[in-house]
Amino acid sequence: MEITLLDGSIGQELVKRSGDRATPLWSTSVMIEKPKLVKEVHAAYFNAGATVATTNTYAVLYDRLKTADLKDQRFELWETAISTATAARDAHGSGRIAGSIGPLIASYRPDLCPPPDQAEELYGEIIEAIGPHVDILLIETMCSIDQADGAMRAAKKSKRPIWLALSVDDFDGTKLRSGENLKDVQPMLNQHQPDAILVNCSRPEAINKGVEIISNFGFKFGAYANGFTKISDGFLQESPTVDVLEKRQDMSPHHYAKFAMDWVALGATIVGGCCEVGPNHIKELAQRLTSAGHTII
To answer: What is the CATH number of the domain that holds 98?
Structure first.
């Protein structure tokens, strides 16, 4: 089977490599101060076997930058994110670029997200800016049906392939983080017709159940989990920093790859990693896929 191997965490890896203290701006501040690190992270994933570089644009959104008085730097930041991913891809000699677009306002807080018609307008700017320079638009960590709907409305205007990634409850993979049933996403998917549907940024145990459900939607599908014990209440407060989240001590590359291979066994053709999943995890997964007779594309 042909498998697309995504990279792992971009933001987390940048913060770790920078040696800087975590801030609410997360990896955006690293990109401002140490842009060369971004290319290094992309290169590390390509060298590990990934075939897609995810741009460091997840949180580079007008509404998030506005609170830090950095909104006027957004165009420069988008350009840096695109150019570093492209340079790493070109140096590697192959691969695709996925333009990452995360939730408005805050991750894991769909209750704060504007309604779909407003979200469509707010997402329009970043999609217009990065769309022409990427191979795929990766809409990430959508935690409610409305949240995904708003992002999809805007993304469809780009004419780029769209991969929509949904985040499920850490301890109940049948539900989105909003509490809505994952299976109830189907009508929205039928309306917007994404090129792939994924489950992301949740505990891998929960993603197992999520993958079972999305495998019945009739779309190309996949998954990429995080390595946190859970998304804690502390991270759901205003202006959180990633250091309030606890890293799992049992998520070795070997352990993570076992989860990912289970998703492949269910028919997933796109796998990779999210927060706390690094190059060593992706390297192990690449080796597992190849050993099992899959072709990484």
So the answer is: 3.20.20.330
Average of per-residue pLDDT across 99-128: 96
Asked if residue 273 lies in contact with residue 225, where contact means CB atoms within 8 angstroms, the answer is yes
Query: How many structural domains does the chain have?
Result: 1
Show the domain range for 141.
2-296
Say how far apart CA 159 and CA 148 lie, in whole Å: 17
What are the angstrom distances between the C-alpha of 248 and each of 68, 213, 228, 252? 30, 25, 5, 9
- Please state, in angstroms and rounded to a whole number, the distance separating the CA atoms of residues 188 and 190: 5
Distances 165 to 100, 170, 197 between C-alpha atoms, Å: 10, 15, 6
- In tens, the pLDDT along 197-238 reads 999 999 999 999 999 999 999 999 999 999 988 876 765 766
How far is 192 from 188, CA to CA, in rounded Å? 6
